[in-house]
Each structure stands twice: as C-alpha cells, then as structure tokens.
Specification:
The complex is a heterodimer of chains A (311) and B (450). Chain A has 15 helices and two strands. With 311 residues, chain A is mostly helical. Chain A folds into two domains: 55 residues, no CATH class; 236 residues, MetI-like (MetI-like fold). The radius of gyration of chain A is 26 Å and the shape is globular. Chain B is of the alpha/beta class and 450 residues long. Chain B folds into two domains: 209 residues, 3-Layer(aba) Sandwich (D-Maltodextrin-Binding Protein, domain 2); 225 residues, D-Maltodextrin-Binding Protein, domain 2 (3-Layer(aba) Sandwich). The chains are: A mainly alpha (311), B alpha/beta (450). Chains A and B meet through helix 2, helix 11 and helix 13 of A and helix 1, helix 3, helix 10 and helix 17 of B.
Chain lengths: 311, 450
C-alpha cells in the first residue's frame, strides 16, 4: 500500500509551473545551510582580507588605516623575501610533486596487480600516515631527525659512519620532502587505486589476448585510463605545496636557523600578521599567493585538459 | 569521484562550522568577564571579575591566594600560551578590537611592541607610580617611560654562570671570572681531554645574546614611548662587534657549541655533561631542575657572570615578566589593582619562589632574610641568591628594547646562523641586522636615526 503510494507520488506531480517554482524554493532551503556557512566563513573573510590588502597601517602610525590601492601588491611582488619564498616552494613543487606521484603510482599499480592478504595490509600501512594529523607527523619527524634522540646516529654508527644533521640548512629541504611524501603518498595511492579498480577487467583480458605483458598493461592501459585521477592528484599536490606551511612551521621549533620565519610565502604571511602585527601586508601576501596558486592550477588544468577530460 | 570530492567539501564546511562555533565559545575575556571561563575556581561569585592571561608555572595557587584574600575582586585566570603563542593571540585581539583580557602577562622586552599599538594602559593614573620604591631600579626602568608606567614588574632574570664543579675539578681547570679567563678555560678543558664544550652560543638565543652584548655597553635601540614615531637603531656598534667577535673566535676553534636553544636536544645537552657551563638567568636553576636525563654525578654550582672589566663589573638581565592592563579592559581600575596586588604579599611570593622558581623584582621579598638565605639543594646547599643573583639583580640598570622586538630577534637569529654556517664575520652579521632593521623601521613609518 505505502509502496504503491510512494511510487505513484512522482507521477502525480506533473510539472505545472506552480509546483516547479515551489520545488525550486525547496532547493534553496536545501542549499541554504551550505550557502550560509560558505558565505560567513569563506566569502566574507575573503572580502575583508581583500579590503585589508588595499589598506595600510604602519606600526608607527598605529590605528590609522590608509587606502593605498595596489601599493601593497607592488611591494609584495618586489619583496625579495616573498619572491625567495616563492622560488623555494617552486623548487619544492619540482621535487616533491613528482616524487609523491611516482611513489603513489608505483604502489597503486603493484597493489592493483597483487591480491594477497599481504597486499591488503600493505595498502593500509601506506595509508596510515595520512590518518596522522600533519602537526603530529611533523613533531614526530622532528624527533626522528634529532641528532641526539633520533635513530639515525645509531644506524649510521653500525656502518662506522657519522649521520648527517637532517636539520641543518643544507639538508632541511630533503628532510621536508621526506615528511610530506611520507604523509601524502598513501592518500594519493588510494585515489589511484580506486580509479584502477573501476576499470573494466575485460579490457585486461583483451590486452592479454593481444599479447601484452604485465608492464605493458600497466603503462599502456592502466595509466592512460586513470589519467583524469592523476591530473586531480597533481593539482592537489601542486596547491598543497604552493601553500606549504604546517611541516616547516612545526619543524622550525627545532631548527630556527635552518627554517627562518619567512621560509615559505605562507609562513611569511603568518609571521607578518601574528608576530609583526602587520595584518594589512599579510593579507596582501596571502592574496598574492592565492592568485599565483589559482593561475598555476589553471595553467596546469589547461595544459592537461585532454588527460583530465575537462576540455 | 566527483561526488566524493563534493562530499568532502561539505564535510570540510561542516568541520569549519563546528570549529567556528567552538572558537566563539572559547573567546571570553574583555568586558564579558562574567561569561568567561576561568581555569581557577572563583571564591566570591558576587565580586567583580578581572580576566588575566599568564603562563607562570603553578600560577593557580597564586590566583587562589589572591581570590581568598580579596572579597571585592576576583581573578579569572587563563593560560593563553607561553610567550609568542600568547602574544600572537594578543596581537589578533588588538587588531580585532575585542578579545583581550583585562590583565596580561608580558615579558619586559615586548612592552614597547605593545605600547606603540596603544594597547596598554598607563598605570600611573591608578597609583602605580607610587610603587617605584618597591621594585628594583632596573625592572622599574623596563616598565616605565618618563612618568608613564605601562606594567607592574613581576619576575626577572639577573644573569649568573651555572657550572659543573665536578667537570672543572676533574680536568683541573679554574672557574673563570672574566671573559679572558673563560676563553682560556675553554681551551684548557679541551687540552685536558674534556670531550664536550665549555658552553653553547645559540644563534637563536635572542634575549641571551642581547644580554651578553649589553654587558659590554651595547644599546641597540633608542626609543621613547612619548615620541612613538622616532627610533634610534645602533645595532652594529663597536661594543656588540667586540662581543660577537669574541664568541665567533671560540666557535671557529670549536671551543663553543652552536646548538639552537630551547629544543629537546639542547635541554638534554644542558644536563648530560656536554657543556661545563650554562650561562643562565636566575630562573635557570629552576629550569635545570625540571629537565630529565640529568647526569646523576653532576655537581652544579653558581658563580657571577664573567666580566669584561673586573674593575667595573656590569650586571645584565635575561628575561623577566610583568603584568600590564590592556586598553580593551572596561574596568581598568580593577584591572590595575589586580596587576599590582597579585604579587605583593609574602605569601604570594613564597608560592612564586618555591613552586615556580621565579626571581622576585618586588623588593620586600627580594631583600627578605628568608629569600636571601635560601639554600639550593640542587647546588649542594649553596646560597645562590645571596652569593650570585642578588648582586646581579641590584646592579641591573634596565635596557631599551625596540617597538618591533620579535622582528629584531628573527633578523638576529638569521644573521647569527649565517655567521656560524657560512663563515661571515661578526661585523657583517651585525651590519646585516642593522640594515634590515633600519629599512623595516622606515617602511613602518618611523623616523630612524642611526
């Protein structure tokens, strides 16, 4: 009885214009909670930050906010500290993104091919670091890198060598790449793995019949078929790296010389706002970085529009 | 894939919403004292409440002591983080125009940073000037500017030298009293087979390094809160260069370590016999005792800080904190009372000394027989207050910090790190800091004199 009723209901609701508009009104109600949160916590703060970035307030002229137009942006894009930070995160992008993607892809391809109990356990183990909060992960690595408490000295000692100082200015780049890779590879691997699982197995059968070996199937069939997922994780990694903040900020507590307060553009914006009380210039830095991230992502998505299916 | 991304977006938005609700729930303070959540228990629910941010160890017993002895005023205390963490919150509250407590614990070195933002109340309107005689001259000079008083001194950090008597004895080296002797002792310890370093010169030592330079007469900043747009910057003076070259020489010969301070590694090195000397403030003994993995055989003793010119000893200070009243407070008079009276009784100070290892700037306690006669078991029963730190406290003359002190510290850390890592000399390092600060101050609208 009730079944037939509910089945009949949509049929009865023929789209007369009155009902359609009522339906649309319901749509707004459904969207409203999200729209409210989105407006209050994203659109309004962004608007306020933009307003702040167009004004200036020097320490010596406290309390007086002056409209300066694009002056802050001119200053930011000629600020050697900001540009050096940008150059640094670009180098991180060039190293960290490929490393993460390759490791994640290889792991996913291997796990996709193997179906043993061990592979399931491995999948979980690779994913676990992503479940650890970034701050905790960075703190943990801070201890592992510590010359006194870390295991490196013991390990190198077995071979009669002296461990490098992972927190020195010469090695900090690699140390940070290692932390981020450790943390994010599992997440990217799961995305790739899920994409691989959604491929119809009959494709593989056809490939095998045509004489393709395992390596060919992986590189010629699987990778092209999951290219849209690959593009997505590269965008994630790209954005995340350009906004690099948490790991160096946490590690800074044990390596203040090697990681200055302006190490990355985001750290520079943070220090400028909360340590040096220049909220206006910090807003400018944040907006400038956001703009560059947007441009970078857009260019990348444009260049890969074929692979991602966005064309 | 698309749905999962969208779902994640919604989940993230929901998480933001939840945490935002959490944030608003926590942001007490300011005028809404009655609604604020206190860490301590309020003894007189009907009395006016004053919100206080402070991070002293064992501060709750001091707050309880205040609340039990006051019927018309109650302190509502929150630990808003230590040092920079608290200052970040305060900066944000200042920018937002709301959210600051009535009374805030600030280190003396950041007082100009906040007075220039017009965020601290001049307490001379509330009778603070009459208290000058109750505090050491150096500490009073740090909180006052002409007739204005921006905070009430609480604790200080007169400097001395804590050393491992057992290490000096084992290698047959005399304990140094001048910096020349200190350099010789560093070499003698090395020659006699000591595998550690005589001490550490941390490039991120900030206030420690300032104190070491100041001992040679360094006055890097000339700043008067009455003329807030003018600042003098003379960081690269000959006095500083002399001191920094001295340390650079010891570093180059690997007689002094350059480990970052305040890390877990550094804490372990302080107590495990890696260093024979800990150049410390009066709060240093308490800090040492709190560290784990200590060398069980260690025999710690305290001595005065080595001098450049033993005929004219100069005493310096490292750290120390104050209570200031914020301009956001809607009850500045009550807040001023709290700032003045939290630490103005023997009972409160006994708690501060015994439980938190604070060094009082309040003279009635500082000069009491009980305090001067304290024997420190950690130092083999040595009366370290009387023998070492009292002279240092009374000899300290005050120091002028800049109104952008956090920035100045960050610049110095960077320059000193470069000096140690890349082998630039002391003059170059100080010159870099000088140029950076002059440029920064100019950008901020100061009239800079060099």
């Amino acid at each position: 009885m009730s079944l037939s009723k509910s089945a009949a209901a949509p049929a009865a609701a023929r789209p007369t214009s009155k009902i359609a508009s009522r339906r649309q009104r319901w749509g707004y109600v459904y969207v409203a909670p999200f729209a409210a949160v989105f407006t209050v916590f994203l659109v309004l703060p962004l608007g306020y930050a933009l307003w702040m970035s167009l004004h200036n307030k020097g320490i010596a002229t406290a309390g007086r906010s002056v409209f300066v137009g694009a002056d802050n942006y001119v200053k930011a894009f000629t600020d050697p500290v900001f540009l050096e930070g940008l150059w640094r995160v670009l180098r991180f992008v060039l190293v960290m993104v490929p490393v993460q993607i390759v490791v994640a892809l290889v792991a996913a391809l291997l796990l996709d091919t193997l179906a043993t109990r061990l592979s399931r356990a491995t999948r979980l183990l690779i994913f676990v670091p992503y479940a650890i909060p970034a701050v905790i992960g960075a703190l943990m690595w801070g201890f592992l890198y510590s010359p006194r408490f870390g295991p490196a000295q013991d390990v190198f000692g077995l071979l009669g060598l002296t461990a490098p100082n992972f927190l020195s200015s010469a090695n900090i780049f690699g140390s940070l790449v290692n932390i981020v890779t450790w943390q994010w590879v599992g997440y990217y691997m799961i995305i790739i793995y899920a994409a691989l699982r959604s491929i119809d197995p009959s494709v593989y059968e056809a490939a095998v019949l045509d004489g393709a070996d395992g390596r060919q199937i992986a590189l010629r069939i699987k990778v092209p078929m999951i290219s849209s997922s690959m593009v997505m994780i590269v965008v994630f990694a790209l954005i995340g790296t350009l906004q690099f903040f948490t790991e160096p900020q946490v590690l800074r507590s044990s390596a203040q010389g090697a990681i200055p307060s302006d190490y990355t553009p985001n750290m520079y914006a943070f220090a400028t706002a909360f340590n040096y009380s220049q909220f206006n210039y910090a807003s400018t830095l944040a907006f400038a970085l956001g703009f560059l991230v947007f441009v970078g992502s857009y260019v990348f998505l444009f260049l890969t529009r074929k692979q991602s299916g966005l064309k | 894939m698309r749905t999962s991304a969208r779902r994640r977006g919604v989940a993230a938005a929901a998480a933001v919403a939840v945490s935002a609700v959490g944030l608003t729930a926590c942001s007490g303070g300011g005028g809404s004292a009655a609604e604020a959540t206190c860490t301590n228990e309020i003894k007189q629910p009907d009395a006016a409440q004053v919100t206080v941010w402070a991070w002293y160890p064992s501060f709750e017993s001091v707050v309880d002591n205040f609340n039990e002895t006051h019927t018309d005023l109650q302190v509502c205390w929150t630990n808003a983080g230590q040092g920079a963490d608290e200052y970040n919150k305060f900066q944000t509250a200042i920018e937002a125009g709301t959210g600051a407590p009535d009374v805030i614990m600030l280190e003396a070195e950041v007082l100009p940073t906040f007075t220039i933002l017009e965020s601290l109340v001049d307490l001379s309107e509330y009778g603070a000037a009459e208290l000058e005689g109750d505090y050491t001259p150096g500490s009073w000079s740090d909180v006052s500017n002409g007739d204005a008083v921006y905070a009430i001194p609480v604790d200080g950090g007169p400097m001395g030298m804590l050393y491992r008597a057992d290490i000096f004895e084992e290698y047959g080296v005399e304990v140094p009293t001048t910096w020349d002797e200190f350099a010789t002792a560093a070499q003698d310890l090395r020659d006699a087979g000591f595998e550690g370093h005589i001490t550490d010169f941390p490039t991120n030592g900030n206030a420690l390094n300032y104190a070491l330079f100041a001992q040679n007469g360094w006055e890097p900043f000339q700043y008067d809160a009455a003329k807030p747009t003018e600042v003098g910057i003379t960081v690269d003076s000959p006095e500083a260069e002399e001191v920094l070259s001295y340390w650079k020489g010891l570093i180059d010969e690997d007689l002094v370590a350059t480990e970052d301070a305040f890390t877990t590694d550094y804490n372990a090195a302080l107590v495990d016999g890696t260093y024979a000397v800990y150049l410390a403030a009066a709060w240093g003994p308490g800090y040492l005792q709190g560290l784990s993995e200590a060398d069980a055989d260690a025999e710690w003793r305290a001595a005065p800080l080595p001098q450049w010119d033993p005929e004219n000893p100069v005493q310096v200070n490292w750290g120390g904190s104050t209570f200031a009243v914020t301009t956001q407070s809607e009850q500045p008079e009550a807040a001023a009372t709290v700032a003045k009276e939290l630490f103005d009784t023997d009972e409160a100070w006994k708690l501060g000394v015994e439980e938190a290892a604070l060094w009082p700037q309040w003279k009635p306690m500082l000069e009491s027989d009980w305090f001067t006669g304290l024997e420190a078991p950690f130092f083999g029963g040595q009366k370290i207050n009387e023998e070492v730190f009292l002279d240092a406290a009374n000899g300290y003359q005050g120091f002028s910090f800049s109104p952008f002190q956090v920035y100045a510290y960050d610049q110095q850390t960077q320059a000193l790190y470069d000096m140690v890592q890349n082998g630039t000399d002391a003059a170059t390092a100080l010159g870099t800091v000088q140029d950076g600060l002059v440029q920064y101050a100019t950008e901020q609208g100061f009239t800079v004199s060099e």
